[in-house]
Amino acid sequence: MNMKMKCLLLLIGAFSHVANAAPIVVPTTTTTFTGSNITEADDWNNGLPTGTEVGLINIDTNIPSGLADLTFVQTAGNLTTGFNRTLGGMTWYLTGGSIASTANLQHVSGNPFEIYVLGGSISANQIRNRDGSLLYIESGSVTISGSTLNMNGGFTTFGLGNGTLTADGLSSDGDSRINFLAGSGGALTIAGFASSNYETLWNQGRLQFDGGNTGTFSDHFQVSDSTLTVIPEPSTLVLLGITGLAWVVNQRRRRK
Q1: What pTM was estimated for this model as a whole?
Q2: pLDDT tens-place string over residues 184-198
Q3: N or C: less crowded end of the chain, CB within 10 Å?
């Protein structure tokens, strides 16, 4: 095998973990919100999005109490509340618009929720993604102002986009995980955190890179002004990529 082919294979191997990362698939919606209360069946054109049904939200409304076991895709609209709201068993895909609470968005014990932030924004006083609940951030922003990201027993994952999470504090335990996928452009900011605080989370297994703790904290992460990000791919790989692609183009031309 000649050197050019070896370089090309190295390039493919170096970036394969990014290319193979499974994207979040937003489900097809089957019912659309048209009224004023998302927990009322009559306010949907095809009934409540329970079971296998998936609801589309694209207008402004309040976030009511009693949310449980519903699946939403929110593409637009501003959903607001000034009260604590439980999200027991909820699955929420946010691709646009906003969710804004001056109180708490929280789990129900034994009935975790899943929120996929693929765009838009979430703001709250506190988010309690505990006891198996998942907060997945691909793009868009999550802002917790006034209290903490409270994730004892819960999971926060940063996907391959450049989504951000900013919080005034963090509460986590040995069963909680903050995970950055390889190639993630996401950013986590915990007020007052220094590099040593994030490294402690890494040493405890609460902060992970691509689902594990292989290597050291400094192998994968960098911290600037309390903001944690994944270290970008080395510039040598970028140069290798340019060289490899140029070689492929040259070979194709020679075959013509």
Answers
A1: 0.85
A2: 999 999 999 999 999
A3: C
Dist CA 160 CA 40 (whole Å)? 36
**CA dist., res. 188 & res. 179, Å (int):** 11
- Helix (H) / strand (E) element for 222: namely strand 221-224
Q: How far is CA 115 from the centre of its chain?
A: 8
User: Hey, where are the domains in the chain?
Assistant: 1-21+235-256, 26-180+184-232
CA angle 93, 97, 103 (to 5 degrees): 85
Q: How far apart are the C-alpha atoms of 226 and 175, rounded to whole Å? A: 23
Separation of alpha carbons 164 and 205, rounded Å: 21
- The pLDDT, as a whole number, for residue 234 is 64
Q: Consecutive 10-residue runs of the chain (256 residues): their mean pLDDT?
A: 42 41 87 96 96 97 93 98 95 98 92 96 96 96 96 95 97 94 96 98 97 96 98 57 46 47
Q: Which residues contact 145 (CB under 8 A, 6 or more apart)?
A: 123, 124, 125, 168
Q: Are 72 and 91 in contact (CB under 8 A)?
A: yes
Q: How many CA atoms lie within 13 A of 110 on its CB side?
A: 0
3-state helix, strand, coil in the chain (%, to 5): 20, 35, 45
Return d(Cα 41, Cα 30) in angstroms, integer. Answer: 13
Distance CA 228, CA 149 (A): 15
